[in-house]
Amino acid sequence: MDLFVSIFTATIIAATPLILAALGELIVEKSGVLNLGIEGMMLIGAAFGVWAHFAGLPMFLAVVIAVLAGMASSLLFGVLALTFMTNQYAAGLALAIFGAGVSAFIGRGFGSTPVEAIQPIDIPGLSNIPVIGEMFFHYDPLVYFSFVMFGAVSWFLYQTKAGLTLRAIGESPDSAHAIGFHVIRIRYLAVMFGGGMAGLGGAYLSLVYTPLWVENMTAGRGWIALALVVFSAWRPKRVVLGAWLFGGMTILQLQGQAMGLAIPSEVLSSLPYLATIIVLVLISQNRQAMALDFPVSLAQPFRPKG
Fold first, then answer.
1. DSSP letters of 101-142?
2. Residue 272: half-sphere exposure toward Cβ, Cα within 13 Å
3. For residue 13, is it within any domain?
4. Is 47 among the domain residues?
5. Domain harbouring 211, CATH code
6. Residues 6+ apart with CB under 8 A from 245
7. Residue 221: how many CB atoms within 10 A of its CB?
8. Which H or E run contains 92?
9. Which of 25, 36, 229, 242 is deepest in the core (most CB within 10 A)?
10. Where is the chain membrane-spanning (predicted)?
């Protein structure tokens, strides 16, 4: 039971940065914009979070700065893709490369100096319940925040007028513009939200999960988050389930290495990525269901007329 609880809690923690980044990208893509730069924005958030921490700022402000850094980097993509209407694929890839370079520059002086990680919080009366308390009520604040954001994003997309407007813009920006919606403005806000969430996911890696700065520490999680959004058919619930799957496979491969299984470590390290992609591809085989949530104008440039 102790091993099960340990794997369960470690899975939830490992999935948190993916949930944060993927939910942000989900909003971006629902607006009809494709930002491939999640990896770069997560790295920038991770680096600036550590920088703020070592600058002596409180941990809360370090997290806020990481979010703002992610938003600022997303604005670079927004200017290129939304204002100058450059190819969104190229702009996103450029942002991923740019983020890797900027984060390496920001973090060059940190080495592997440990960070005083954000600690779990105990919920009075609940954290002490045997087994259940450890499994559900003994996490750091950002894990709980990821649950809140899942509910908030689901509610926003499907229960609010603003969410309906966002989805309408993703379906037909010309029609949305014709009835008076500011398509570019709304897409900018969506892109900034996605950047902030990616920066927060990066900050979680450097301030909680590791916790220290390592160059390219995202290790492809930005690309996995991007894949989660697409293969989950742009549905928040499937995004979270996919993130938990990846987190679970990550923890299981670490357990396998610790147990000394006679399998090359490189093979074990690749299993989370391989298993996540295979399962999500199988989930997405229902093309009719995917078509219901696919943003028709995804990655297509829009120039307001009139």
1. HHHHHHTTTTTT-B--PPPP-PPTTTTTSTTHHHHHS---HH
2. 29
3. yes
4. yes
5. 1.10.3470
6. 275, 276, 279, 280
7. 26
8. helix 88-106
9. 25
10. 6-26, 33-54, 60-82, 89-106, 142-158, 188-212, 218-234, 239-256, 262-283
* Full residue range of the structural domain in which residue 280 is found: 2-293
The pLDDT averaged over each successive group of 10 residues in the chain (306 residues) is 86 96 97 97 97 94 97 97 95 96 92 86 83 88 96 97 96 93 96 98 95 92 92 90 88 76 74 76 70 85 81
Identify the residue whose tokens are 């992610």.
70
Contact 171, 295 (CB under 8 A): yes
Instruction: Compute the half-sphere exposure of residue 158: CA atoms within 13 Å on the CB side of its CA.
Output: 11
Angstrom distance (rounded) from CA 13 to CA 203 = 13
Take residue 153 and report the two structure tokens written for it.
């994003």
Closest CA to 166 of 193, 186, 184, 152: 186
Number of domains the chain contains: 1
Query: 35-55: buried (b, 16+ CB within 10 Å) or exposed (e) per residue?
Result: bbbbbbbbbbbbbbbbbbbee
pLDDT at position 156: 97
Q: How far is it, in rounded angstroms, from Cα 198 to Cα 281?
A: 23
Q: Cα(91)–Cα(95) distance, rounded to whole angstroms?
A: 6
Residue 23: Cβ within 10 Å count: 28
Q: Is residue 270 domain-resident?
A: yes
Please give the single-letter amino acid code of residue 302: F
The pTM assigned to this predicted structure is 0.93
For residue 239, give the nearest of 230, 248, 247 by alpha carbon.
230
Which distant-in-sequence residues (6+ apart) come within 8 Å of 160 by Cβ?
A: none
- For 194, the token pair is 């996605």
Any domain includes 300: no
Residue 101 has a CB neighbour count (10 Å cut-off) of 12
